[in-house]
């Protein structure tokens, strides 16, 4: 009898092909459990150019997003936007596994599979906050810029690491502590605690990003700080700006030398 169990790469593609948010979270948990128990082979599969998306939220270009109001509606809009980032982050973790994992050491797979599990937990925690307020993920429009970053870097691991963990996730680490403090000061300690827990995990994701970026630089004899700046100049359409959470970035191994041009 042949073994019909899907491989890790097939399980990862199955998560990417799942549109339903709850289904994406559940399939992630199953894939992570099978991998951590050593029950699946790495295998082979082709990553889709875009992961499946639910009918809602409607995706708009960033410039077409409605302005966020303040008050209870603003609170829902903010957490909805963060839930959307985490939903994309689940797919970004599985996408990096499928596109780049088979040429990398096993520890690379371990890191990004652990990250996929955490992104799914982050999404679920934020969706839970929305449901407590009578809202749900999909109620509001969302933007598609995170997946645009993924598509721009689909053939280049160094560029993917620079753009996603080292720039976009690092930006989250810069901003999230202040957002958590705003919720805490407004008396919403539960939401503040969720955001603080997410930020602690994101520091680990940045650490993995730095670790593997420096690994790829060592293999191509590139200076990491110079490569970071070069790749950013050619792939990042936004502007890198502070204030930076320098202690958290340093904790993740992203020392000030990476940011030197932006710290003057
Ligand atoms: Fe996250
Ligand atoms: Fe993350």
Could you give the count of β-strands?
Answer: 2
Low-confidence stretches: none
What distance separates the N and C termini? 65 Å
CATH architectural arrangement: Up-down Bundle
Main sheet characteristics: 2 strands, parallel
Please summarize what this structure is.
This protein has 264 residues and is mainly alpha-helical. The protein is 65% helix and 2% strand. Helix 2 packs antiparallel against helix 4 and helix 5 runs antiparallel to helix 6.
Task: Give descriptors for this structure.
264 residues; mainly alpha; Ferritin; two-stranded parallel ribbon; 10 helices; 2 strands; binds fe (ii) ion
Topology:
Elements: H1 8-16, H2 21-36, E1 59-60, H3 71-100, H4 106-132, E2 142-143, H5 145-152, H6 157-185, H7 189-219, H8 224-235, H9 246-251, H10 256-259
Parallel strand pairs: 1-2
Helix pairs in contact: 1-2, 1-3, 2-4, 3-4, 4-7, 5-6, 6-7, 6-8
Bound molecules: fe (ii) ion (FE2) (2 copies).
């Amino acid at each position: 009898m042949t073994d019909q169990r899907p491989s890790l790469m097939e399980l990862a593609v199955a998560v990417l092909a799942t549109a339903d948010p709850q289904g994406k979270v559940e399939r992630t948990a199953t894939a992570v459990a099978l991998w951590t128990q050593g029950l699946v082979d790495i295998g082979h599969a082709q990553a889709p150019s875009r992961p499946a998306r639910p009918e809602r939220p409607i995706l708009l270009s960033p410039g077409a997003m409605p302005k966020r109001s303040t008050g209870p509606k603003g609170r829902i809009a903010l957490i909805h936007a963060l839930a959307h980032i985490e939903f994309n982050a689940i797919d970004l973790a599985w996408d990096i596994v499928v596109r780049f994992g088979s040429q990398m050491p096993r520890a690379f797979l371990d890191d990004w599979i652990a990250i996929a599990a955490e992104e799914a937990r982050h999404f679920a925690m934020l969706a839970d906050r929305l449901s407590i307020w009578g809202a749900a993920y999909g109620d509001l429009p969302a933007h598609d810029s995170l997946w645009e970053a993924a598509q721009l870097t689909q053939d280049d691991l160094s560029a993917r690491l620079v753009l996603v963990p080292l720039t976009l996730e690092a930006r989250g680490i810069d901003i999230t502590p202040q957002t958590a403090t705003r919720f805490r000061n407004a008396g919403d300690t539960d939401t503040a605690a969720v955001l603080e827990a997410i930020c602690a995990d994101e520091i680990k994701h940045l650490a993995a990003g730095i670790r593997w970026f420096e690994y790829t630089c060592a293999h191509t004899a590139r200076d990491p700080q110079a490569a970071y700046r070069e790749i950013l100049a050619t792939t990042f359409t936004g502007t890198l700006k502070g204030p930076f959470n320098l202690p958290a970035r340093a904790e993740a191994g992203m020392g000030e030398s990476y940011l030197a041009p932006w710290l003057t």
